[in-house]
Design brief:
Elements (H helix, E strand, L loop, with lengths): L1 E13 L4 E2 L2 E2 L4 E3 L7 H14 L4 H4 L12 H14 L2 E11 L9 H11 L7 E6 L5 H4 L3 E12 L1 H4 L4
Parallel strand pairs: 5-6
Antiparallel strand pairs: 1-4, 1-7, 2-3, 5-7
Helix pairs in contact: 1-3
The structure holds magnesium ion (MG).
């Protein structure tokens, strides 16, 4: 069993879609970024990469690479899952926190959780998602940014390695 943690923060800007965990949330602003700005997927991917000892998302998908301009972060997930699989890892459990003053994420919590379960091929009861505000403090509290934290547990399949554990 391997454990990793991840964190990401993106600025909220007008004229962008708000994507969190692979779903679109209706709001007047969205997360800025070289890719689609999905900070929740980025945090989960960093946690998965950390658990596998495979660096971070920037090592795999540079924010200077024009190929990844406005890229769908679900494709990053697909690529990283394929690399994890090659190394004999599968995602066993995900836990996450989304910190946003606005919009209110409560109505979308279940949809985000189900989406993460689908993207990472994990049963929904092994995916956690907490939506919190920042109690009005700092940039997140002023609604200028959204931050996400994630923890991921990977299991190494014994078949791939030929060992029992
Ligand atoms: Mg990011």
């Amino acid at each position: 069993m391997r454990i990793g943690i991840g964190y990401d923060i993106h600025a909220l800007k007008k004229g962008r879609k708000l994507l969190l965990g692979g779903i679109e949330i209706p709001y007047s602003k969205g997360l800025e970024g070289h890719s689609d700005g999905d900070a929740l997927l980025h945090a989960v991917l960093d946690a998965a990469l950390g658990a596998a000892g495979m660096g971070d998302i920037g090592d795999h998908f540079s924010d200077r690479d024009p190929r990844f301009k406005n890229a769908d972060s679900r494709l990053f997930a697909k690529e990283i899952l394929a690399q994890l699989k090659k190394k004999g890892f599968r995602v066993d459990q995900i836990d996450t926190i989304v910190i946003a003053q606005e919009p209110k994420l409560y109505p979308f919590k279940e949809k985000m959780r189900q989406s993460l379960a689908k993207i990472f091929a994990v049963p929904p009861d092994r995916v956690g998602l907490k939506a919190k505000t920042h109690e009005g403090f700092g940039a997140i509290g002023r609604g200028e940014a959204i931050a996400c934290q994630a923890a991921v547990v990977l299991q190494k399949s014994s078949k791939k390695t030929g060992k029992k554990k």
